[in-house]
Amino acid sequence: MSAADGHIEESTAIITARSDAIVPKIGLVLGSGLSSFADRIDNPIIIPFGDLPGFPKPAVSGHEGRLVLGTVGGTSVATMQGRTHYYEAADAEVMKVPIQTLKILGCEAVVLTNAAGSLNPNAGPGSVMLISDHINFMGVSPLFGEVGNGRFVDMTNAYDKGFLNEFKSIADGQGIRLHNGVYMWFCGPQFETPAEIRAAKILGATCVGMSTVPEVILACHAGLRVVALSIITNFAAGMGDTKLSHEQTLRNAKIATADVHKLLVSFLSSYKS
Ligand code: HPA
To answer: How many C-alpha atoms does 198 have within 13 Å on its Cβ side?
Structure first.
């Protein structure tokens, strides 16, 4: 058994013992500026990542590092309040234990959220973008070292078509403008250069960010359905006139918080297995 497998087993046992028989159906990962969604969880049970073997402790402000179990709109959830990024660990597998633990706990799907820079001139700070596909040109995969044929994951429908349609119709019904696009993963922690953004545009990116893609790959490998939302916090490098910074990311993420909360609550309230 690998160290990661041992951690998944131990973390699953700890969560099950403390979770008052909640079997989560949906796993959520709350990215920069979105951790307040955990306040929407009814009857929350909070477990610090520090208590869970193999759950990395995020060291980026805006990422609390707690697992919150409970229900939203009657659907049981396990919510990661914060994530760890590739750039913190130089390890694309850093989210492997949490994602596989969510699967073993009983999750059928994951909802991943992040902050991102926009390449779409019509989607400025405070917009929300549904990710319909991604580009991984980082040269790394969280599946490096896996064995067996299961590692050759088909990513054609990585972003679940049913969920994409559902989010679009929820947004239409609520009068929320939901953009749609391709997320390109950059390793960070530095922001991109204007030349990198021009290259990303030619390649077909609509937004850029430093997270989520390894989690999508791990989730697909684990057999979880995936939906992912980006909060646009800035125009990408070279497209706007403001200085890019993490403070700006956290500040501007707040503009879209209410819309994202509404989308997530509606999605979870109407979720059926
Ligand atoms: N680039 C990468 N990550 C980001 C950005 C960006 O412009 N904005 C928020 N996260």
So the answer is: 4
Residue with structure tokens 């297995």?
A: 273
Backbone CA torsion sign across 165, 231, 112, 91: positive
Please report the domains of the chain, with CATH numbers, ordered by start residue. 3-270 (3.40.50.1580)
Per-residue pLDDT reduced to its tens digit, 101-127:
999 999 999 999 999 999 999 999 999
pLDDT in tens, 160-181: 999 999 999 999 999 999 999 9
H/E run at residue 98: helix 96-105
Q: Which of 210, 219, 228, 237 is catalytic?
A: 210
Place of tokens 């800035």: 234
Per annotation, catalytic residue among 11, 19, 230, 234: 234
Nearest CA to ligand 1 atom 9: 116
**Ligand 1 mutation target, pool 249, 252, 254, most atoms within 8 A of CB:** 249
Q: Which residues of the chain have pLDDT under 50?
A: none
Instruction: Specify whether the CB–CB gap between 96 and 145 falls below 8 A.
Output: no
The model carries a pTM of 0.96
Distance CA 68, CA 70 (A): 7
Would you tell me how many other CB atoms lie within 10 Å of the CB of residue 88?
18
The two tokens of residue 65 are 């590092």
Active site residue 246: yes
Q: What is the DSSP letter of 33?
A: T
